[in-house]
Each structure stands twice: as C-alpha cells, then as structure tokens.
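1st attempt posting a full record on here, be nice pls
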Amino acid sequence: MSPSAKSTATLLSTAVLLLAAGIADARTSDRNKPMDIEAAHQVCGLGANDSCTYTDVTMTQGSLRIRAAKAVIQQVNGDMSRVQMSGGVTLSQQLDDGTDFDSKSSAVDYDLRNETVVFTGNVAITQQRGTLNGERVVYNMKSGQVESGGTGNGRVKMRILPKSAQGAAAKAEG
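the predicted structure (as tokens):
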C-alpha cells in the first residue's frame, strides 16, 4: 500500500474505516515471502497466462494463512494476477502492529492487478478493534477504502470496541 493511501485511510474517521483498517495494515513483510500451497488435488497449465485450480487448499505466506475448498490462481505474463477462493474461506494474518486479523466468508476474490479484495457470503471479520459482518465487503488496497453491504434486505453489522476493551472482548464476541 502506498504511503499516500495509508495516510488517506488514517485520516478518514468513519467507523467502517476504523474497523476495517486492519486489512490495510496486514503485515507488509508477508508480501516479500514465498507462498506455500498445499492441496488435495491440483490442475495447472504451464503457460505464462494459464491458471491453476486447487481443491482442499491451504496457502501460507509469512503470517498469512488461508484455507478454502477451492482456489483458482490466474497468471498474466508469469505473475499472479487473481486468486479466487470458494467453498468456505478462512483467512488469518498478523497485522504490522502485532494484532490478529481473522475472516470467514463463502468466497474471496483477490484481484492483484486492480488491488482489490472482495469477501462475499456470510462475511465475518474479527480484529482487535471489533467485528464487521455482512454479505459483501470490498477493500481497495490503493485507496484504503472499504465498502460493505448486504444483499436484498441484508444489513451490515459492526461492533467497535472502546480502546480500553479491545483485544479479549473482540475474540470473546467473535
């Protein structure tokens, strides 16, 4: 995340950004570490613009841990361009400040080229600052903006803890 995007996210004081800013502060050193993938089955194309499909997959990269029933990793010119995970996705990562970020959702679509992460279906995000639940959460890594909402009559539900109660209470409520 660029310094200007991080400054913008820090300056914004809306409740959604206060809660979801943890996504923006994911351990930056993780991006420079190798990604390890373990799966029950894989089908991969060998070309620079091919994709790989994994079932019953676990991915780790530094403090980042992801589990999903299915993951499709697409590449463009030999670089990962998009990761689409489905079938119940759990994601956990330690943030730069040492606290934990945990999420559960039906699916996650991580578009590396556009720098967006979309969580869909029974989204539950828990971190020290509180919780965010909804049907869809979109995080734009360039701008630091978070958008969330429900489908139909669905609603976004948030709990923001007072600074003195952060940590243990968020995990107990999770």
